[in-house]
Structure formats: structure tokens, C-alpha cells
TrEMBL record:
Keyword annotations: Lyase
GO molecular function, one term: 4,5-dihydroxyphthalate decarboxylase activity
EC number: 4.1.1.55
Source species taxonomy: Bacteria, Pseudomonadati, Pseudomonadota, Betaproteobacteria, Burkholderiales
Ranges that cross the membrane: none
Enzyme class: lyase
SUPFAM superfamilies in the record: Periplasmic binding protein-like II
All residue ranges annotated as the SsuA/THI5-like domain in the record: 60-142
Entry protein name: 4,5-dihydroxyphthalate decarboxylase
A Pfam family of this chain: NMT1
Amino acid sequence: MPNDKLPLKIAIATYGHTAAVKDGRAPIEGVAPDFVEISPIIAAFRRMVRDVEFDVCEMAPATYMIARAAGAPFKALPVFVFRRFHHGGFVYRDDAGISKPKDLEGKKAGVRAYSVSTGIWTRGILQNDCGVDVSKVTWVVDDEEHVTSLRLPSNVVHAPEGQSLVSMMADGSLQAAFTGPAGIGRSGEPKEGWDASNARQAPGYTEMFPDTLAAERDWYQRTGIYPVHGLIVVKDELLAEHPWLAKSLFNAFVKSKELWLEQLKRGVVNSDTDRHYQAMSEIVGDPLPLGITPNRPAIEALIQYSYQQKLLPKHYRIDELFIDPQAA
């Protein structure tokens, strides 16, 4: 490792478990970081896949896989900075003739963009766990895909001019939709204040999986899959020129997570995100496992789902998509 620190432009959100990386308590050895604040962080994903604007960047894992398959010059570390299950947040209208997942076939469902990770995970559950032929659902989108070269399946259509998922769900043009940022909880492309537009669930919309917590717990116990929803990518040229960099970054995130877990154990809870991971730990134990081995079921599932949904041209091996900083 050289004496002069490597300057890196880094775009990651501030979570409890990343805070120590950003404030210097968990330094990245050999690196002089320039942290760029972007809100919402989703906007950074788009800037990275289109312009490779940052040296290190947080990114949705499916967006990354699609971009990598299209030739993007960056590779992922097995550092997963956001996790959640995906049985909640998919709703249907009470007058839609839907009472079970299989009833979605022949219907229209709204999702912000076809390649958003939330959509991929939930469609994967519907297909592989509930027997739904997701190709028989018309998926209506009202935003661009992050990766502009992505060719979408024929059952994906854009909302008509002047309409949004919110308006289409309200007037019955859609029978189902994702809530929150993945669907009817926002409008337009990611921009400042976008998350604040998170709409309240309208009356007359029902969760596809009503006992969400029980469904999540059962699914995890059966499959071992704890969905990944955010990871860290690094420019290929930097990884090639500085072989120590991957491990240095990984170690910093491990240290930051350790400091955060110690804080939680002391009862210091600073945000809804902290509370979210406290709840997750009751199901999975470690709420933010890092590295390839503990995350293998989730990584393999996301690759499988993305391939099934025609978002990847082949079923990739993990080592084609991830660098393992713990490998000998």
C-alpha cells in the first residue's frame, strides 16, 4: 500500500452502519475519501450507471447486475448496505377480482420501473413461491430504467402520456401496484425531496400478503434468503491498479457495522432504519451480514429471478459479478 492516500469520490447514503465510514471513525486504509451527498441516493445509481461519475458508489443490486451485463466498468463488493423482505408493499384494489396471488394473471400492475429491485424480488416470490406466471401480468411503468440499453419484455408497457401509477391505480386502470418509492408512493424520476412524497396508502387497497411478518419469517426459514437491496460498486480500473483497495473498503464497512451494533446493544437507536434492523434481527440474527458466504442464498436468488424475468442475458456465476475481498 502506498504512502500517499488514494483520493476517491464516494457516493453512499448515511445509515447507522455506514456513519463511521463517513465520519472517519472507521477509516478506509490508504484512501482519502471525498463523500458526495446525494438525496435520494437512488439518483446516484442512475448517475453511476450512465456516466460512471463516482469511484465508489452505493447501488441497487439488480441495477448493478444489469449494468454489469451491459458492460459497465465497475464491480460489486459483497457489502450490502440495505436489506429488507419483500412480501409487504404490493397491494391490489378491492374491486379487482383478486383474492390470491394467482389472480394477478391477466391483470395490470404498476411498478416505477421494471428493473427496480423491489419489483424483481416480489415477482420472484410470486413466481417461485406462489406459482404465478409473471409473464401473464402486464407490468405498467412510469419512469425510465436506470440502464437505458435494457430491452424490456413485451408484457412491460409505459403509462400513457399524462398519467402516473398513482392516477391509474386510483381510476382502476391498474388492478395492483407497489407502494412507496417502487410504485404509487412517489411520482416522477428520483430527485431531491422525492422520498418525502411517500403517499399514504389509499383506502380500498389491500396487501397481497396480509400477515406480512409471518410470511417473511416463514419464507426465510424455508429458503435462507434475506433479500439484498443495496451494495457497493468500485471502478474496475481502480481495483486493477490498487489490488489492496477491495479489502480496505470491505474492512472499513465491517468496522463501521461493528461500531453500530455496539451502539444498538447499548440501546442507542437513532432512526427508523435502526428500528427496522432491530426487527430484522429477530428473524435473521445478524441484520447486515457482509461477505459472499453468508449472502450466497440471497445473491443466487437475485441472479435467478433477474434471469427468469429477462433482465439478464444468462445465469451468471457469483464470481462474475462480485469481487471477494476475503479470498486468499
